């Protein structure tokens, strides 16, 4: 019957529409599933990636800190290898620029040459305990400014050096003691002197008054020819050393007598810090 075959065609056409509608629902369901399940994960992954870097403060970008807390950039103010005196530098040749240590050394000004001072060297060569052929001339100076040590047993060993100081004021002062000093280059060398008295030698003195009122002021550091015809103006007597003794208690000229009943008129001084009695008489020729 044609009716039966006619019914089959509509059934086929209706099945195709139903399948088409079912496919649409499947597509809608897939889109919903994608929106619900997949899309949030993609967005979340992008958000996590955006927070992986360092925080950039407002006002401009800056480099991230280096490991260990060190700054990301090299600190300013440190010398670079191109500055003079750092790194390998140049060879230091004349007229060159920059350069290392060699350049600075070759360009340094030469130290001034100090001329030798023989007198200063002579003073500095003297040591305590030395003896010197030095004496006061009576004219306000010593016979030499070049103190050369001599044997202390020599006849011309007039002075014994008790100390060497940086100023004359630091030397002992007393009868038969004085100093000689020399300054060079801001350095002073003072030789502290103690007179070595020898029997038979003569020294200068000034006498004032006469008889019982006579007074004698001796230049204990002086040496003079016993028979000199002229003496410095400040002196008027030549004294002859008759004895050099260990000073007894209450020493005086009375202790200078050389023989019993000696009637010589003596002049005496206690010298060498009170340890020595010096006996003299006016030279008679």
UniProtKB/TrEMBL annotation:
Residue span of region Disordered: 54-117
Keyword line: Membrane, Transmembrane, Transmembrane helix
Keyword Transmembrane helix annotated: yes
Transmembrane segments: 24-43
Compositionally biased region (Gly residues): 86-103
Domain of life: Bacteria
Feature: compositional bias, Low complexity: 54-63, 72-85
UniProt-recorded name of the protein: Serine/threonine protein kinase
Lineage per the UniProt record: Bacteria, Bacillati, Actinomycetota, Actinomycetes, Kitasatosporales
